[in-house]
Amino acid sequence: MMRMVENIKQGTVIDHIPSGKALDCLDLLCYNNKTRLFMAVNVPSNKMISKDILKLENVFLSEDEINKIAIIAPIATVSIIENEKIVKKFKVELPNQIKNFQKCVNPKCVTNTEHYLQPLHNVNKKRNALECAYCERTLH
Amino acid sequence: MNFRNRNFVSLHDFSKEEIEHVFKTADSIHEKKDICAGKILATLFYEPSTRTRLSFESAMHRLGGNVIGFTDIATTSVKKGETIADTGRSVECYSDIIVLRHPDDGAAKIMADYTKVPIINGGDGSHQHPTQTLLDMYTIRQELGKLKGLKIGICGDLKYGRTAHSLAEGLSLYNNEFIFASPEELKLPDYAKRKLDEKNIKYEEKRELKDTLDVDVLYMTRIQKERFHDPIEYERVKNNTILTKELGQKTNALIMHPLPRVNEIAYEIDEKQNAAYFRQMKYGVTVRMALISLLLGVVE
Ligand SMILES: [Zn+2]
Fold first, then answer.
1. Residue of B13, B126, B127, B196 to mutate for A, most A C-beta atoms under 10 A
2. Contact at CB, B125 and A108, closer than 8 angstroms
3. What is the reported pTM?
4. Is residue A3 pLDDT above 60, yes or no?
5. Tell me: the pLDDT tens digits for B239-258?
């Protein structure tokens, strides 16, 4: 198979991101590492029509850190690479809470006035919705 | 069941069983003397709510404890821009438990997150006022002897009325039916209906109070003129949700109101045995006494 993106010797590979959502994923991860990063966008895929891939060199993200991308990349798979070998592989899973995703939509919410607070949303898995952890307003 | 050092920010901080335990504790709380002696309750009121504050302060005094606090932010460091988190961390050095009233939605959670002492939400914007719901439920329990299998009428501003939403949420833990009466412009919002639908709760919607009289509980709330976009519309419908002397004679329901009232309930109704709104205030102190004692861990 044609090699789409440079392989990394060690780091984190996030595959099966919906097309065009790779940058949003980086945003959500608050990604600000100065190490090398490969991004492939609109790659043909068997599982999906097309997908994005992220390869973060020398960056090792924990499952907890990475799981929040499940809200925009629900079927993403993550591989942790060490010495060119996959040492861990997992599917992202929607966590109970998501930090820093988006500001609360309610203008009267206290998170919009107390500026030291990070936006925090609870995941309502029953309704598949995000609710502000402070004012409980649903994010659409 | 363990309540010690917990917060009461939202009604769903407590399970149904825990809510019932608060009520059981309330039943005998007046027999216990001075159980909060040496303890200090701080009442931090960022906006005035005289009734809620007096109720909490009365509760603490009846438990033998002391009260500190502020009611006017103009004279406090809050005015100088102190954050809720910092105010909480300062006040917890002076007190054992804090009641917070704040105009912003979700403010109580911040104070709960940043302090180690129990925080009671005394109303945060349009978010929650959970002790109001507890005392409303306790009133029904005491007056009617049960909390389930009832038909509950809720009348007034159902769009912005936090009290109405919370009461419906609390009572939907039990098998109850609802009739909501409000002007079209102030009807129950979709998200509140969705919550009831999710729990398979039966409810009807009416526009006039006269169609809501055949119930076990009639919960009246205030309608504010400012809530209407169109003042003419307000004038047209304002009398449809007033419990007049005549309508009052047609119902045997337990009549409740969070108070203060403006003109929603005619004064002639006050003398009726089923007019419970002043007794409701009394139950409020009782329930708050139980809650304070449980969160302080002086009763179990
Ligand atoms: Zn919010």
1. B127
2. yes
3. 0.88
4. no
5. 899 999 999 999 999 999 99
**Cα distance between residue A119 and residue A106, in whole Å:** 12
Query: Is B216:B253 a contact under the CB 8 Å cutoff?
Result: yes
Find the residue in A nearest to B83 (Cα).
A114
Q: In what order do the strands lie in the sheet with A50-57?
A: A37-44, A50-57, A11-18, A77-82, A85-91
Report which residue type is found at B196. L
* Tokens read off for B89: 């961390």
pLDDT exceeds cutoff 80 at B79: no
Q: What ipTM describes this predicted complex?
A: 0.86
pLDDT digits (tens, 9 = 90+) for A82-109: 999 999 999 999 999 988 888 999 999 9
Instruction: Please give, rounded to a whole number of angstroms, the shortest distance from the CA of B13 to a CA of chain A.
Output: 13
**Type of residue numbered B201:** I
Closest Cα to residue A63, out of A104, A14, A17?
Answer: A14
Domains identified in chain B and CATH numbers: 11-125+284-296 (3.40.50.1370), 130-280 (3.40.50.1370)
User: Mean pLDDT for chain A?
Assistant: 89
